[in-house]
Amino acid sequence: MQKISPCLWFDDQGEEAAKFYTSIFKDSKIGDVTRYGKEGYEIHGREEGTVMTVEFEIEGQKFLALNGGPIFKFNEAISFQVYCETQEEVDYYWEKLSEGGDEKAQQCGWLKDKYGVSWQIVPTILMKMLKDKDSEKSQRVMKAMLQMHKLDISTLKKAYEE
User: Is residue 152 part of a domain?
Assistant: First the structure.
């Protein structure tokens, strides 16, 4: 069993979201689904038999989607980083995860999906460039990155190598 596992609180789209995420990532699967029963209706207000939780796994990371009602909403204080080796990978995850999401929330490799969950689509080379001991190089990369929505590896490399 994984020691720490994120629980994502949805109004009632937990199963739909789990299916969406597992359709995007190749190494993923849906696990157990639990349903609300009669017990606790006065507290949770959910019809008996509706989905309460969905366990799912993406790239070895276990998650739990909870249909808890409209009480809480996602915000940018928590995000999931997707590390990408190539521009093709960046483009793929950006396209899939941003579909139906908030275009106004797209900045510096960050996006918000159609459920309000924040993601960072990050080329692995970016971290190497930002950590460079030559501060002029790293600052040029930072400046270039701050101008982007989806990150472009060739533009970042160009800024680094100037």
Answer: yes
Q: Which domain holds residue 126?
A: 79-161
What are the structure tokens assigned to 113, written together? 């999906």
Q: Does residue 147 share a domain with residue 88?
A: yes
* Alpha carbon distance 54, 67 (integer Å): 9
| Residue 29: Cβ within 10 Å count | 11
**Residue 30 has which token pair?**
């849906």
**Whether 53 and 101 share a structural domain:** no
Q: How many domains does the chain have?
A: 2
Residue where the block lists tokens 């994984």: 2
Q: What is the distance of C-alpha 42 from the center of its chain?
A: 33
Q: Residue 15, SS3?
A: helix
My answer on whether 83 and 49 are in the same domain is: no
> Is pLDDT of 33 > 80?
yes
Q: What is the pLDDT of residues 46-86, one digit of tens each?
A: 999 999 999 999 999 999 999 999 999 999 999 999 999 99
What is the longest distance spanned by two Cα atoms in the chain?
65
